[in-house]
Batch of 2 targets.
Target 1
Amino acid sequence: MLTPKARGPLSAAVLEALATAPDRIATPSPESAEDAAIALWALYELHYRGFDGVDDALEWHPGLLGVRRELEIDLEDRLRSRYVPHAWEGDLAEALFGYVAEHDGASLARHVQSTATEEQVLDLFRVRSIYHLKEADPTSWVIPRLPTGPKAALVELQFDEYGGGDPNRLHSHLWALGMDALGLRADYGAYVDDAPLEILEQNNVMSLFGLHRRLRGAALGHLAAFEMTSSLPSRRMAQGLERLGMAPAMIEYYTEHVEADAVHEQLAARTICGALVGAEPALADDVFLGAFSCLDLEDRFARRQLAEWGAA
């Protein structure tokens, strides 16, 4: 993957450092939220697939890690400032289902189901590909940080995400097949320069939660909210693509998620989050922080995209 385009002086300095690998890195303050977000995204990608022409050893470069930490502090502070701690009682899974059900955000899937044009859908897929081409990977960082029960349950869920051992059923691969069938680029990170702030932040938050052991509760709360809000929207997306006569391969991606995520939401809420909080009660609030962040960031992106389409 090529490095992304800079969006300001901070990201320009980070990308220059990736190219030159200096011992010390002087970075200016970000001039915008997008400048900070693309810089953080690039630094996180060193832990995934890296970049063409960038030394893999830079994954653990102390100077780059220092820059990443400052950006992470700012991102986490903003997430926590938006979140209102949630008082709950009784069964954690039931409380989590109720919390997610109370959220009534904007729906891109509903727009695609009934109204969107083909070009709007293609625009959506371009920026969604930043996540879908790595899909389950941020959550996999959490596996070794869990006690026995939640660990086994998360591996079970991830096994489905990774195609049950069949590389042709890997969810990220199904997405790539759909992109290719639509005439879009299916290579990893191909459309990052088209991604708005909200998409970058969605991806950065998943990496933030996944890469920090202390945020394992937030990572799993995010996963649960994601799975709880996936099955019905996936059905709507499939119906919208059928309405437009779009590629069967991409329709298959969504139909795969209609049934799979209906099962995954139960697994994520009960056998993963519920069991985690049972073993580590202090992580309960972070579970709700993660769920809130998932819902809030998707709502922010949906509202932006619908406004851009004149559909808000």
Target 2
Amino acid sequence: MFNRKQVLTTILVCLGIISIIGIIFIGSVTQPEAEYSTGDKLAYLKTYIKYIFVGLILAGITYKAYSYESIRKFLYIRQVEIIMFIVITIFLISPIFLGVSVNGARRWIRIGSFQMQPSELVKPILILLVSQIMYGFKRKRDEEFTFYYWAGITIISVFIVILQKSKTSAIQLAAICYLIFAVSKFRENLKVTIGFSGFLLGVIVLIFKRDYSTTRLTNFAGKGMPLQVKAAIDAVKAGGILGRGIGNGYQKYFYLPEAHNDYIFASICEEGGLIFALLIIILFIVLCATMFYVASKMKESINRYVVYGVAFSIANQALLNIAINLNCAPSTGITLPFISYGGSSYISNAICMGLLFSAINVEYTKRGQ
């Protein structure tokens, strides 16, 4: 069993290197679009650094708040859980009434000079809430009530996000909620039934509700490659082993849409080559493996579910983004954690890490390690 210092150091080193890679390549990849949009080549990099600064502050606040036992006990109160769900619901429905429309979808709200995506920001709250529910089952042993309570929160949250035409975010939220449920003490046959039913429902929706998602799936199945996917593959191939060199990429000059966001991994492959691509993959494998290892060694507690929830969130996001960039999954909008330009994603993941560090610290403190 690794001790607290080894675990936290491993996670911190991985996050630090990943974030440095993000700063370097955001500074390079965003220059053409930043200069075209604002006249300042470094405008996007400056905003990205602001996101990092805000994320670190909120992560620190989250870490400190969760470390107080009185606050953790306060979270167990059923009325507090209901308030948390109300906050999640308000956050999720806010774009419908106050949102900024981008490409026909209202997923963002504007807070000062920042444009934020609520479906990303609610992830830490949802992880904490579902973790409380799963641990509450262990304490109260009321399987039927706990199941319907969890299912209701999951379905409502996912449905609201679908209304905003953000199926990717909906799938991510559904996956996080289900995977936390999957590592709970519920009956195994119930877990399998819910997982299969959810998958089947998703397939039925895609078959009968034909839209851009259906087009992306048929394209991936072999009926044509979208321009952004072709550009991403060209970028990966062009990079070779050593890459063109940082700052020397071509696809960022408006050939590859979202080169700094959804397709940042392809951009890094072009400029940094296979070396940087493998470095990023290895860092995420070590980061996620460490989180899963710690969670698997924890006794039944809310901290165990929190660590699992954060690990699932980061792993799902990283795996899907890299798979899409390599044309191993249908094209859809999802960022690469701590590297892509998306501010909502960075801040949300930073808060999740603050929650994770605090949960690990609390658990090791209980053991006296």
